[in-house]
């Protein structure tokens, strides 16, 4: 049963950020304006320890659909329990369209369930291929993707191909991944995919060693690599303002931190000054940011996150939490990426 309908043609200029199912990221999606929401299809990486549905109920994303990657969620020992189908039914009840994400290591059972979930919603899916892991050459990539499509019972025309290059940790990595991306894109042209997108991420997994009380730059090597590809019709994806290297189960008290996206770099603000109160620290951080050269000309109007940062720059009340800082950073990042894609 199809519960949603959508356009047949490939969407042009759609940004596909790969996000964690956390309050900060969902808040950023919830506060997108209507124009931005039409151009974003987030890919949510679900995990057994992170509950996506309660967050979607509290902060429904304004995007037309969300892609959900259940690759980290194992098949249930109970044959009557299906993570993809259970999630598809629950999201349908909430009025949120779902695109299941196919992975090369999915079991035959999971591929079938993802195909059924796709038919419950938009009759579409995302095929996430990591060429450095899933296929050593073009022939293996063809065999792997053919198996995934057949297992899910979907045609390539209904599937968005996501070529995930994962971590670009240094300039040498970026150069090597750019060459790999060109090879994979040449292979991808032989199949009539609904769309083709290249994803990578360059944010370090740990910012704790960076200096505090001064903005520090981290190179957006992923964005620079995509710009050098100059491939028409190839979409853009990244890991938002987080790292492709997931550090699960690490919890510690964080300093107020913003990961502020600019054209070629992220500006990392980690603030310890102004005594022990987090609100005072956040106020001082935000005040420093809005006075910086990389504060956008549109100021607080640039995104919901920028409006929240500007508000904290005016007052020390309500300094937020790690989830708030991630939400503001992600909101600004999405707006910045969309503005860049519009210029291109």
UniProtKB/TrEMBL annotation:
UniProt-listed InterPro entries: Protein_beta
Family matches, as Pfam families: Beta_protein (PF14350)
Protein name: T4 beta protein
Superkingdom field: Bacteria
């Amino acid at each position: 049963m199809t519960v949603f309908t959508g356009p047949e043609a490939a969407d042009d200029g759609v940004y596909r950020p790969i996000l964690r199912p956390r309050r900060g990221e969902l808040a950023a999606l919830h506060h997108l304006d209507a124009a931005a929401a039409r151009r974003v299809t987030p890919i949510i990486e679900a995990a057994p320890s992170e509950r996506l549905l309660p967050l979607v109920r509290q902060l429904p994303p304004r995007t037309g659909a969300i892609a959900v990657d259940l690759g980290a969620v194992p098949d249930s020992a109970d044959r009557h329990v299906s993570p993809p189908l259970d999630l598809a039914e629950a999201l349908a009840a909430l009025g949120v369209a779902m695109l299941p994400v196919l992975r090369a290591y999915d079991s035959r059972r999971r591929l079938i369930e993802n195909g059924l979930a796709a038919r419950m919603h938009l009759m579409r899916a995302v095929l996430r291929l990591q060429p450095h892991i899933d296929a050593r050459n073009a022939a293996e990539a063809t065999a792997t993707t053919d198996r995934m499509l057949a297992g899910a019972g979907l045609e390539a025309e209904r599937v968005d191909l996501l070529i995930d290059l994962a971590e670009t940790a240094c300039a040498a990595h970026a150069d090597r991944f750019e060459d790999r991306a060109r090879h994979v894109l040449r292979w991808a042209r032989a199949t009539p995919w609904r769309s083709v997108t290249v994803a990578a991420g360059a944010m370090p997994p740990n910012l704790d060693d960076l200096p505090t009380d001064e903005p520090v730059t981290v190179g957006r090597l992923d964005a620079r690599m995509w710009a050098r590809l100059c491939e028409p019709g190839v979409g853009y994806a990244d890991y938002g303002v987080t790292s492709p290297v997931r550090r699960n189960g690490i919890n510690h008290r964080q300093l107020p931190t913003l990961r502020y996206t600019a054209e070629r770099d992220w500006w990392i603000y980690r603030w310890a000054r102004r005594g022990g109160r987090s609100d005072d620290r956040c106020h001082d951080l935000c005040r420093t940011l809005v006075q910086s050269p990389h504060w956008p000309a549109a100021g607080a109007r640039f995104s919901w996150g920028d409006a929240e940062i500007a508000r904290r720059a005016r007052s020390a009340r309500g300094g937020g939490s790690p989830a708030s800082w991630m939400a503001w950073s992600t909101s600004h990042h999405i707006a910045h990426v969309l503005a860049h894609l519009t210029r291109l």
